[in-house]
Amino acid sequence: MTASDSELRAPNIPLPPWARELIALYESDAASQFILHGNINDRIILPLGGQTDIGNLGDFLLRVLLPRFDVVLCYDLGNGIRVEKGGEIFMQCPRFRENPELPKTPRAAVEALSHYFRYTANLRRLGQKRAQVGCIFRSAQLATPALGAGLNYDISAMALLIRDWGSDASLTEHALATFLIAENLNDLHPLLVNNPRAARIKIPLPSPEELQGALALMASRYPKALSNCQGNFEAPAQQLSGATLGAVESMLRAKEYQKEALKPEDLSKLKKGLIENDSNGLIEFIESGRSLDDLYGQEKVKAWLRQDIALWARNDLRAMPMGYLLCGPVGTGKTFMVECLAGEAGVPVVKLKNFRDKWVGSTEGNLETIFRLLHALGRCYVFVDEADQALGKRDSGGSDSNLSGRIYSMIAEEMGDTKNRGKIVWILASSRPDLIEVDLKRPGRVDVKIPLFPTSTPEESFALIRALCKKRGLVVEDSCYEEIRHLIPLLLTPGAAETLAVKVYRLVATENRSVSETLKACLTGYQPPVSGEVMAFQIGLAAREASDVEFVPEIFRRMIAK
Length: 562
What we know:
This protein has 24 helices and 14 strands. It is of the alpha/beta class. Helix 5 runs parallel beside helix 7, helix 19 packs across helix 21 (494-511) and helix 21 crosses helix 22 (515-524).
């Protein structure tokens, strides 16, 4: 097939970038088999010449890309082979004319499709009129899963046959276009994913511009829900960036049914819910009304973070870090610092939840889904707590079938992608930064390493306890300090101080005792939650990890200098 032979339709109305890429590959004869992955289950705008509609991916392929093909076939596990177009031409094949019942089981269906493709190729060689054939293979990962690679001969045989559709010269020399649809590449058999003659086309979440066009298109369908927009959909589209078009449409339907107008103040909350639902619980948003002013001490760190926020606000990305590492003993407030940073920056903070799965390939698929959502958000922080456990290892020793190594590889690639600078900022938190792979925390992935420390003097400990008591309405007088100075613990973390403040409040509220008397009693029986040896070890790790010695108090600098 040459470029002039192409039958793919490219309407005058702009197509999404992924569709333009697909057409270019087909017209140039670079590929005739396409693996469509990513946001495949979403609604899509259908540019149909002078008209525009909204449908699903199947509608887009049938109505936008393949309207001039003579025969279009579809297959999925539930429905088997279906003839979407050109039934009369299809039935001219002797095999199906004699037995019109089309198979449903994967092996039989793939063999039947292969037979038909070779039949049409043979017709062309005999000089007869060729039929332009398109085939859409839905949920291809269910028929040829990655799980079957090397383990199941039937699955491997099917993968080989499907691979031939896009690589066998006897098939590709005539007008045949095949589309394998799978949400995640890691779910699909590697014989298909790694086929050099198959093009992998990623369908992203809708851009703000696409959402704006979709909202304009849906305005007549949901007039009440969109009445506050007054024909200007740019702002709501920007705020809804990261949500699927299907989720947005469902939201508008609900608003229209309730006869409620979409309000600007509702959009952030709605977006959060829509994206969390679409992620199937893989991520959650951290909402915070705090700012860096709520962070006790850490003045040099706060100054640095505010400089980064100012650069981000000015869109000056040249000095923006790719990521931060927050390290320090247990209880030093790593998660609290993230909450303060979230409130100060006004940028979404996404926390990765448990993306690991017991099923082979599912964990990698979950990560693909997470990355797809992150890219669609525009700008966000990505928070990974207990990073030493969550991010995997380069070499897990074979204890988990190298799942940890595959997780490490995917996350390392994503963290080091310079196209994400100024869009995605990673925040790793760990009390054991020494257990995080060196390559994951190197400059270019993690540029700023911020150590968090416990208090180093009785005055610091007293001020911390006093501040946390004040938040609960308890006033600790200055004069109390000298009386309890000998009881005040050193190396007090915000977490331990919080527990002390809660205990003081509880006793004051239930026993009607004075604050100073209660605080003295609580300190008398105080037991550190972390042993001194562990605390000293984790302090040393954090101090050595710091990217700037100015982040480390003088007393702890002397500890690591020994």
